[in-house]
Amino acid sequence: MILSLGCRVGGRAAESERTFILGEPTKEQEWFYTTAQQAQEIGTAGLVAGATCASADDRALDFIRDAGMGPYCLHRVGHGMGVMFHEPPWVEGGDDTILVPGMVCSSEPALYVPGLGGFRLADTVLVTQDGPESLTQFPRKLDEIIIV
Q: Does the 2-147 domain belong in CATH 3.90.230.10?
C-alpha cells in the first residue's frame, strides 16, 4: 500500500510518500522495498549544490538497473517543488540544471512490480551548501512500515 501526502507550508509545496506492507513481508517484498529505499537514499545524496539534476537521477537509476530492476522503474528520481507540487527543474536524465542552495526537490525513485505492488519512498529535500537536507521525517526502515 502506498500512502501519498502533500501539503503547503508557508505557501510552498511539500510531499511525502511511503510504502506500507500489510502483514509479514515476503522475501520478495523485502528485496524490492530495500532496493527502492537504497535507490531513494542515493537519489537524495545526489541532490548536492553544484551537481546537475541529471547526475542525481543517473546515480539512483543506475543503481536500480544494476540490481536488475530496470523494467520496474517507470519514472525519474524527482522534480522541483515550490509554489506547485511538480515544477522545474526535473531531477531526470537530460536536465543539466545546476542545483543551488535553497532549491527544493523531491526524491522519489520507485519500483512497480506487476502482480506484486509498488515500492515507493518520496521525500521533500532542501539543497544546502553542506549537502541535501531531507525535510521529510516519516519512518522508512522496513520494520517501521509493516502493518501487522
A: yes
